[in-house]
Design a protein that fits this description.
Two copies of one chain form a homodimer.
Chain A lengths: L5 H17 L3 E3 L13 E3 L2 E2 L3 E3 L1 H22 L2 H8 L7 H15 L6 E13 L4 E8 L6 H18 L6 E2 L4 H17 L6 E7 L10 H9 L4 E5 L3 H4 E3 L5 E4 L6 E10 L11 H9 L4 E3 L2 H5 L3 H8 L3 H5 L2 H8 L5 E3 L4 H11 L7 E5 L8 E2 L2 H8 L8 E5 L8 E5 L4 E21 L2 E18 L13 E2 L2 E3 L1
Parallel strand pairs in A: 4-22, 8-9, 8-12, 12-13
Antiparallel strand pairs in A: 1-2, 3-18, 5-6, 5-19, 7-22, 10-11, 11-12, 14-17, 15-16, 15-17, 18-19, 19-20, 20-21
Helix pairs in contact in A: 1-5, 4-9, 6-7
């Protein structure tokens, strides 16, 4: 389809825009809303104009690995000693880690009010060209986004294929991300509901002025459609809208009619940025974590999303501590060489290589921050490492960059231009999990691969963040 | 609910916006699209924040009348002599009527290629306060809009009622407008399909740069979902995208892959503005009308949408010519005093009354134009009538204004403000019809009430055009 004419591209853009507008594939531009004006502008989220090729075998591999990754992160999050050993070096200079760790400790002090935890994860991969194998970019365990957008993008490509009679050299995938996520929250809800006779609801903790509601609301609507009340509560409204009973029951008071609900599941779609913990943020998080509500997920699982954790798990023997050998080897096969800059021998070796790369290898240095956009790439790496203060270096992770194939062609609407040329895609595999924490270890109650996301960016664009304008939601065309 | 606090209104606005954004209740702001920028802004269509009270008995009356109105307009459109007598006085100065009438004549000359006609109508009503009865505002027979928006607004109000726990003093209505319209087009399609062995499609003729795609696309998607191909064709692309066979078969060539379809149904969502008939417009319309495709609707039915027709049908004895007496009396009961300014005795009498209104009566003078926005109201009427050129006065209709109840309270988001206060609502009843024209009269193959639209504006705002910013889509709360 690389030979599309300009008027065909125009037709494609218009067909896709109309599908997106009528199917909620949009961003709500709350920050462009004029003061005092009760309307709100929005725009279609950036998407590929045609689906992008991806090896079918690697797609299947990625989905097959997800249960192992879920289990690995769940079990590791329960290993308090290991967790502490990884985080301790960061506590002196990483404010965010310090805050979260303090919440862990305060919660422990009061005793575990709710042993059951719910997790919605996403493991991101790119293809490594030399071996044509899957390599993990990162694992997200907190406030995972993109599931609803990805589902819409897949359905959009299927619609456009039929509407315009496009013949593809490959198989277009379907997606049921939203209902998978709804199922996992519903399962947690039912576990809680069994033990109470009060009216219960799922509470989705969200950021105010949120431009990404189209990735959150469908999950709420899905729960409501199943007869499970679900309400949104702004992060900064938590203390005024909820109360904590003496026994840890979290009560939510509906701001509209004042009706009270017992909260079954706290589903975090906020609280992932350090800025949210200034002011009242710490009290808010502690208030929620101390409650008897099932957290999706709890603060221990939240900590697992830090980049330092990915590097710590990659160290020799760690994965093998939490997974059966077969599963461990599959998981480990997706790891790129990676080390926290903690002064260890292995870390020094990788640092040396990055200072003077051989055989065309490229490196990236990642700070221990959420959300990307702070990474140091390629040529900038040696100078950065040279100047990096030894004191704070433990807050950074060095990773050999994944080198994706250069011959994949794509057609993208990035929102500010139509791009036709070589592209790089990132496959995210969604996982859901429900488990019971105990001193003897965790009991896993449910563990599933729950769908996928797929994003594509022009080759040469470093970061992949669709809502910030880098890259597009896309659908893999399996080859 | 008139005692909602400001923060509750804010909550309502946000809840509604998010529902609209995720359910395609939007306008596509194509004209605000920056040149060369492949994104497009959009915004939620204006809606009421709470449903507005409407008498349940009158709602039922309106739906019960629709089949009679369908039949009246269908039969009248087939009465060539009467149609000509009504239109003849306008031909000398109303360009649009002249153009459409010329197309009628040219099509007749070539012989009727397709006797079956499909109609999607909407009869609009307001409540007359003194008698608490339904009065017809107008009847729309061409390119009827609002069905999909109305359905979304109704579903939105149902969602919000549940999500926020709002208790209403009345019954919230449901709507299945879109599937009703899809059914009627599908029925026409099947009638055509029986007689051919070629691949057939419905062709939706649309305006380019259309901001109202969210009211059109769901009908297309609904047809496609039923396995009926449906394509959009811009009005000005008709001659390049379709060809007419010697036998009148209309062939549509798919601009994307060049596949050819025989057109079963031409569904007009364009061609209702005179400006569209400048340049190539006449040839476009003639091309479509001459074809063997079933028109939804044909040019004869199109003419019935002119305001002059409503006044002509209101004349003594006319309705009774086309309907059984019982049905005729129900229909006539909804007519306000109304006359074309054609110099007849009855017209002179009404003109006199409007020049010096007694008993608080108010009048409106309507030019014979589509789309509203050109009417002369109230105090402006006498001076306008005084100065109106006798030559062109036949192009105007004078109508006693409906006086709606003044005590209905509403809460609206008109897009530029939140309005709380007295409101006026307009109920539209959708009708669908399929019939066969013949010299002996028409044979009606299907005749249905197909749903409703409901719009509300602040009292004092004259015109009701939601997409132009006057009024809101709404849902009747039956009392």
């Amino acid at each position: 389809m690389a030979d599309l004419k300009d008027d065909q591209v125009d037709r494609l853009v218009s067909e896709i825009h109309d599908y997106q507008i009528t199917h909620g594939s949009l961003l709500k531009l709350v920050r462009l809303q004029e003061h005092g004006n009760p309307s709100v502008p929005c725009r279609p989220v950036s998407v590929s104009l045609l689906p992008t090729a991806f090896p079918g075998r690697l797609f299947d591999d990625a989905l097959a690995l997800q249960q192992s990754f879920n289990e690995l992160y769940v079990r590791a999050s329960n290993d308090h000693q290991w967790l502490e050993s990884v985080l301790r070096p960061l506590l002196q200079y990483d404010e965010f880690v310090r805050v979260l760790w303090k919440i862990v400790q305060d919660t422990r002090k009061r005793g575990q009010a709710q042993p059951i935890v719910c997790g919605i994860f996403r493991s991101d991969y790119m293809v490594q060209k030399d071996s044509m194998s899957l390599k993990q970019v990162e694992m997200n365990t907190f406030s995972v986004a993109g599931a609803c957008h990805a589902e819409r993008a897949a359905k959009m490509h299927r619609h456009v294929q039929n509407a315009l009679g496009i013949k593809h050299n490959g198989t277009l995938l379907e997606s049921n991300n939203t209902s998978s996520l709804v199922e996992s929250l519903a399962l947690a809800h039912e576990h809680y509901e069994q033990a109470t006779s009060h009216k219960v609801c799922v509470l989705m903790i969200v950021q105010g002025m949120n431009f990404n509601i189209a990735d959150e609301r469908p999950i709420e609507y899905g729960l409501v459609h199943k007869g499970i009340p679900c309400y949104r509560c702004d992060w900064y409204d938590v203390l005024s809208s909820t109360t904590l009973d003496r026994d840890g029951t979290l009560l939510f008071s509906h701001s509209f009619d004042g009706e009270h609900f017992e909260v079954s599941v706290v589903y975090y779609r906020a609280g992932y940025e350090y800025a949210e913990y200034e002011e009242d943020g710490i009290r808010i998080r502690l208030h929620l974590e101390q409650s008897r509500a099932i957290k999706c997920p709890d603060v221990l699982t939240h900590l697992m999303t830090l980049k330092i954790m990915q590097a710590a798990l990659a160290k020799q023997g760690v994965v093998e501590r939490y997974l059966p050998l077969d599963d461990a080897s599959g998981v480990r096969g997706t790891f790129m060489p990676m080390q926290p800059l903690d002064g260890s021998e292995a870390s020094q070796r990788l640092r040396q290589e990055a200072m003077a790369p051989t055989d065309g290898a490229r490196y990236v240095v990642k700070p221990n921050l959420e959300g990307g956009g702070h990474n140091i790439f390629d040529e900038a790496v040696p100078q950065f490492l040279e100047l990096l203060d030894r004191e704070v270096s433990g807050g950074y992770t060095i990773m050999r960059m994944i080198e994706p194939p250069q011959d994949i062609q794509g057609l993208l609407n990035t929102g500010d231009r139509i791009y036709r040329g070589p592209v790089v895609s990132e496959l995210g595999v969604l996982g859901t999990c429900l488990w019971r924490r105990g001193k003897e270890g965790v009991e896993i109650l449910s563990n599933k691969a729950a769908g996928w996301t797929f994003k594509t960016k022009p080759t040469g664009v470093q970061e992949m963040n669709v809502v910030k304008g880098n890259g597009c939601f896309d659908c893999p065309l399996l080859t």
